[in-house]
Amino acid sequence: MKKKTDKNNRVIGVVLLVIGVLAIVVAFPHVNEMISQSGSDQAISVEYDKIDSANIGKLIKVSGLLENDGAIADDVFGVSRNTVKLKRVVETYQWVKDCTETCKYELGWHEGLINSAEFDASHKNPTEVQYESQEFMSEKTTFGAYQIPSALLHKLDYDTTLGPDELIDAYHGDLVVFNEYLTNSTDPLNPKIGDYRISYRYVKDKNITVTAQLAGDTLVEYRKSDKSTVFEIVEGTTEAETQKETNILANVLFSLLMIGGVLIVIASLYQLITGSTIGKK
To answer: Residue 222 is inside which H or E element, if any?
Structure first.
């Protein structure tokens, strides 16, 4: 009876041992991935107003106040603003076809031209516009001790629309100022197909966080070991990113503890299978 019990224990032990080994095999790649996330490709937090030459070529993260360098202008309409970037938004009054349920045509203001080639004859849009939306910014913008290139600044969302009073002060042309728009419409409350209106968006001075590679004093795109890239600009400080890093490290520690627990179980199972203690001859 004792032999039968020992045999059953060994069978159970072998099965559990196999399960334990498989658990480690499955868990190890995930742990390795999390460790790599917190390793060489982890951004180094640096000072906003000082460049450390030792960080050149590395992935860095810097937070601080993004301030305008002076006026950015749209010379076509003579509109300018003290900001890091300015956008002229041109919308045309035109048809749009909505087929969410049953197809119907609706008139509205839309940026860019909607292709009406397949619309019916009574719902045709203009095929060209006199003006297009356009962004205006410096080639590089000063950010503390660093320079932000336009390719990165382009990613920062606009947060403010130029108001009617500011438009009246800035614009001196033939278009009508109606609310926050310049428009060619003779009756802004009842626009015609093809009428256009222009508004301006800009970015207020604000705190931002940039994650990128340091090249001299310029922040450029960083290529990680897995071939993905990092070139980020977000509003606010680094608290959210710091929390993300803490979560990664906590997950790594938890996974390592789990693997350690499995190893202890395997050692106990080995004793059960062999009927001997570890290290006993």
So the answer is: strand 222-223
What would the pLDDT profile of 10-25 be if each residue is shown by its tens digit? 666 566 666 666 666 6
* 2: amino acid identity, one letter: K
The single-letter DSSP state of residue 241 is: H
Confidence category of residue 193, pLDDT binned at 50, 70, 90: very high
Q: What is the pLDDT of residues 32-72, one digit of tens each?
A: 555 555 555 789 999 999 999 999 999 999 999 999 989 99
CA 27, CA 69: separation in Å to the nearest integer?
51
Between CA 75 and CA 82, with CA 79 as vertex, the angle to 5 degrees is 105
Q: Which residues contact 200 (CB under 8 A, 6 or more apart)?
A: 74, 79, 81, 86, 87, 88, 89, 161, 162, 167
CA distance 210 to 143: 10
Going by the DSSP 8-state scheme, the letter that residue 115 receives in this structure is: P
User: Any idea where the domains of the chain sit in the sequence?
Assistant: 2-42+240-274, 68-204
Report the distance separating Cα 156 and Cα 137, nearest Å.
Answer: 12
DSSP alpha helix (H) spans, the chain: 2-37, 150-153, 164-170, 239-274
Cα separation, 125 vs 110, in Å, equals: 11
Most distant CA pair in the chain, distance: 105
The whole-model pTM stands at 0.71
